[in-house]
Amino acid sequence: MSGSISVDYVSHQFSETAEAVLVDINLNVKAGELVSLIGRSGCGKSTLLHIMSGLVDPSEGCVRIDGKTVIKPSARWNMMFQKASLFPWMSIRENVALGLKFAGIGKKEISSKVDELLDLISLTEKADVKPRSLSGGQQQRVALARSLATSPTVLLLDEPFSALDTFTRSALQQDVATICRQKGITMVLVTHDIDEAVLMSDRVLVMDQNPGRIIDEIAVDLSWPRKHMNQDFQRVREKLLLAFKGTEKTEPPRTLDGGRHGVESSAA
Amino acid sequence: MSGDLAIAHNTGGTRHQARYLLPAFVGRYLYPLSGLGILFVVWWFGGWLIANDDDLSAFADFAPGPTFAALVDLIGSGDLSDSILSSLYRVGTGLLWGFAIGVPTGILIGYLTIAMRVANVPFQFLRMISPLAWMPIAVLAFETWDSAIIFLIVMATVWPIMFSTSHGVKRIDPDWFKVSRNLGASGTQMVRTIILPAIMADVMAGVRLAVGVAWVVLVPAEYLGVTSGLGYAINDARDTLAYDTLAAIVLIIGVIGYMLDSACAKLVNRFNWHQEA
Lengths: 268, 277
Ligand SMILES: Nc1ncnc2c1ncn2[C@@H]1O[C@H](COP(=O)(O)OP(=O)(O)OP(=O)(O)O)[C@@H](O)[C@H]1O
Ligand SMILES: [Mg+2]
Description:
By secondary structure, chain A is α/β, with parallel strands linked by helices. In chain A, 33% of the residues lie in helices and 22% in strands. Chain A is globular.
C-alpha cells in the first residue's frame, strides 16, 4: 500500500514581511491512515494542506509522499475543497473524466472508469446533465468522483462538507471514510467540526494558531462503522474538547448538532 | 345538464388555449413585424414627400417602389454578388486578425494585473480613435487598398474582442485553476480545456460587437480607392445618379448586417454557460 506522507520541519510565511503562518510542522501519516486536522479558523490548516498538495511551496522544510519530495500538484494526491468547483460547461460525466483526460487515457477506458464512479456516487442517471442542475451535496459527490478518478493514493480534504446540510453531510462523511478505507487511500481531512473528526479518522491532530503549529494528537480507537452518540464516541470527543481548551481565545469549534461547547474565553 | 356542463367546459378550454397561444405569437412575430411596418410607412411617406417637392423630385427613386424594383434587378442580374463577396472578405479577414490579436492580448491583460495596468490607458486611448481616422496612415503604410481597408477593420474589431476577452478571464473562478492543476493539467491543457471554454461566451460577445462595428466602418472605408465592395457600389450608384439602386444597396447592407448579427447572437448563446440551466 502506498500513500505515506511525511511533513518535515515545514514553516511558511506568505511574504518576507508577513507573520509566519506555520512554524516547524512535523507529522507523519501512514499509508492508508485516516487523519483529521482540527483547529480554529485562520490557524493555517488550509495552508498546510495546500503545501502537502504541492499547490503552495513552503518557505522552509518539505513534504514527502512515499519518500519523494512534493514539488508540484499531481493527480496521485488529490485535493478536495469546500466548494465543489465543477466546470459549468461540462456535463457531469466530463467533469468526472477530467483528470483521466489530462493523463491522456483512452476514451474507452475513461468511459468505463467514469461509469463505475458515477455508480459509486449514485449519480448514474445525472451523467449527461450540467452541474448547475445538481444540489450542493450532489455536486460535492461529483467532485469526490472527480478526485477518485485518477486513483489517487492520498486524498486531501479541505472542509469539503462544511457547506452542506446536516443530513447530506453525515451521509457523505460515512461514504468518504468508507471509500478511503476500502481503497486504502490515505486521507487528511481539515475540519472545524469535532464530531466529523471523530467520525471519520483514526487520529486527530489539533492545531494552535499564531503561529500555526500542532499541539496535540489524539488517537480515535473506535470500531467502524461509527455511531454518533454512543458512549465511546462521547469519550473521544471529550478528550478532543479538552485538547481544544489548550488553544486559547475566541470562538469554540462548531459541532455537528450546531451547539457551542463551552471553552472559557481567557480574554473575558 | 351534464351535456351543458361538458360544452361549457369545452369552450372554456378552447378560450383558455387561445389566450395562451396569442401572446406567444405576438411576442415572436407581431411586434417585430409591426416595427418593420412602421419603418416601411415612414420610408414610403418620406418618398411621397420627396416626389411631391419640386426641388427634390429628382431623388424620388429613393422611395420603396423604385427601390424594390431595383432590388429585384440587382438580385436577378447577380451584379452585386461580387461586391458582397469582396465586402465580406474584407470584414472576415479583418475580423480574423482582430481575433488573432485581441484574444491573446485580452487573455494577457485579464490574467496579469501588471499587464492590465500598463496597457489600460494606451488601449483605452487607442480605442476611442475612430478607425476611419487611421485611413491616411493606412494608405501610406499598406501597398494595396485592400490591405489598408482590412487594417481599418482590424483597428475596429480588436478592441471589443480584447476587452471582452479580458473581462471573461477576470470572471474565471480561481479555484478552477487549483482544481485542474490538482488533476494534473499541463499548461496547454489548462488553456485548452479550462481557460478557453470558460471565456468563450465573453469572447463571442466581443466578436458580436466587433462584427457590428466592422460592418459599419466597412462602407465608408470602401468609398476610397477600391473598385469593389458594397461601399464602392454605393458611391458608383451615386455618381451615375441611380438612386433606386443606391437605396437597394443600402437595404442589402442592412439585411446582411442583421444576418451577421443574428449569427453572432447564436454563437454567443451556443457558448454561454453563464445562465444556461
Ligand atoms: N494567499 C495568502 N496570502 C497571504 N496570507 C494568507 C494567504 N492565505 C492564507 N493567508 C493567511 O494565513 C493564515 C492561515 O490561513 P488558512 O487559510 O490556512 O487558515 P485555515 O486554518 O484554513 O482557516 P479556516 O478554518 O478559516 O479555513 C490566515 O491568517 C490567513 O490570513
Ligand atoms: Mg481553510
